[in-house]
């Protein structure tokens, strides 16, 4: 995708052939800064601090983190240490753990002398796979938007979304936003209502930034306004990404997604989840088994932004001494999800068995 007319990915191998660069998403949309990762500790810090975020991008960053570690020490002990380090960074996003399990399966049987090269090849391959997967998600999801536009010629298709599931949450293209970009590029009139997504404001800061850079009409709304907007503004569908889906279709995504799904259901608006098929965790029967990450309460009690002098600053917004509860995700029951938009096509939970067949 593009920023100020220049094409970017969210993560890439540097010209030196071993370090990795990322876009620091904690500073967007106010500051565009590239950060270099030279070690597995750098990669783990980037994941924990949300310099990189979004389940697909977290997974690819972890793969590069393994490669960075093995470049200096490829022993059995070093491999196990880096896998443990990265597994512990964020618990909810399944792509992280899927990637590390895949890396372990590939690297453990190898001689130590071969591990660094193979680990880097694997990270690069996973990055390219992610791009191809998200491009396909966009193609399948655009079919849904195109069908709505065909039924209502001359009318804008209104779409609600939550958090950021665009190219900034992946290597490129995105998940939930990929169908919107594809439809927009085809000339279909679309408009996106963007939940601000408290407490880290990924919608207001990141989704709005992406959509603006791509020229997609959009409006940022308070999270609490999503039900009112769906009821009164002619929203045709809602699309979000996700971080983990259980075998029955229960879906973990950024906190507030469940409320958006409830509002959509109450107003008979279809709610879709866009995801790579590897985000389905077939080992979990239902959503109650998904571990929900809880983050620092300071994210709720303060807000970061740009002041009148242009400086990036953090401001306290709560009463002195107030406590906060900060779950990073919630679980939307499968009954509220119309369908899942994947690189394989539009799936229902009953289709997830095909994914197990493919993995066998």
TrEMBL record:
Pathway(s) annotated for this protein in UniProt: Amino-acid biosynthesis; L-methionine biosynthesis via salvage pathway; L-methionine from S-methyl-5-thio-alpha-D-ribose 1-phosphate: step 1/6
E.C. code: 5.3.1.23
InterPro entries recorded: IF-2B-related, IF-M1Pi, IF_2B-like_C, Initiation_fac_2B_a/b/d, M1Pi_N, NagB/RpiA_transferase-like
Keywords: Amino-acid biosynthesis, Isomerase, Methionine biosynthesis
Reaction equations catalysed: 5-(methylsulfanyl)-alpha-D-ribose 1-phosphate = 5-(methylsulfanyl)-D-ribulose 1-phosphate
The keyword Amino-acid biosynthesis belongs to this UniProt entry's keyword annotation: yes
Sites where the protein binds substrate: 53-55, 90, 202, 253-254
Active-site residues, as the UniProt record annotates them: 243 (proton donor)
Molecular function GO terms recorded: S-methyl-5-thioribose-1-phosphate isomerase activity
Superkingdom, taxonomy of origin: Bacteria
Gene3D superfamilies on file: translation initiation factor eif-2b, domain 1 (1.20.120.420), Translation initiation factor eif-2b, domain 2 (3.40.50.10470)
Cleavable signal peptide: none
Site (Transition state stabilizer): 163
Broadest EC class assigned to this enzyme: isomerase
HAMAP family linked: Salvage_MtnA (MF_01678)
Task performed by this protein: Catalyzes the interconversion of methylthioribose-1-phosphate (MTR-1-P) into methylthioribulose-1-phosphate (MTRu-1-P).
Family, similarity comment: Belongs to the EIF-2B alpha/beta/delta subunits family. MtnA subfamily.
Name assigned to this protein: Methylthioribose-1-phosphate isomerase
């Amino acid at each position: 995708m593009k920023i100020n007319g220049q094409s970017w990915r969210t993560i890439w191998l540097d010209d030196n052939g071993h370090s990795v660069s990322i876009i620091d998403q904690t500073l967007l949309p106010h500051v565009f800064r590239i950060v270099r990762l030279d070690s597995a500790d750098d990669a783990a810090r980037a994941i924990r601090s949300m310099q990189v975020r979004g389940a697909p991008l977290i997974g690819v960053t972890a793969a590069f983190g393994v490669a960075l570690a093995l470049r200096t020490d490829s022993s059995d002990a070093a491999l196990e240490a880096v896998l443990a380090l990265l597994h512990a960074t964020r618990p909810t996003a399944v792509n992280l753990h899927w990637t590390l399990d895949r890396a372990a399966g590939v690297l453990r049987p190898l001689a130590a002398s071969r591990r660094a090269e193979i680990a880097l090849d694997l990270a690069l391959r996973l990055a390219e796979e992610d791009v191809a997967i998200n491009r396909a998600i966009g193609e399948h999801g655009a079919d849904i938007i195109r069908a709505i536009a065909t039924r209502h010629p001359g009318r804008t298709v209104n779409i609600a979304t939550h958090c950021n599931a665009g190219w900034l949450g992946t290597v490129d293209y995105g998940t939930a936003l990929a169908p919107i970009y594809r439809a927009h590029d085809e000339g279909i009139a679309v408009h996106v209502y963007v939940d601000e997504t408290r407490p880290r404001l990924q919608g207001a800061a990141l989704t709005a930034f992406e959509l603006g850079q791509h020229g997609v009409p959009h409006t940022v709304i308070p999270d609490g306004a999503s039900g009112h907007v769906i009821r009164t503004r002619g929203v045709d569908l809602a699309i979000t990404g996700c971080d983990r889906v259980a075998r029955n279709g229960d879906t973990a995504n950024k906190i507030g997604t469940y409320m958006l799904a409830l509002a959509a259901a109450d107003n008979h608006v279809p709610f879709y989840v866009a995801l790579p098929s590897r985000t389905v965790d077939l080992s979990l029967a239902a959503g109650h088994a998904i571990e929900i990450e809880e983050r620092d309460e300071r994210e709720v009690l303060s807000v970061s932004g740009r002041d009148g002098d242009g400086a990036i600053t953090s401001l306290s917004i709560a009463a002195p001494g107030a406590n906060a509860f900060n779950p990073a995700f919630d679980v939307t029951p499968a009954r509220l999800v119309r369908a899942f938009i994947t690189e394989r096509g539009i799936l229902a939970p009953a289709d997830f068995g095909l994914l197990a067949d493919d993995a066998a």
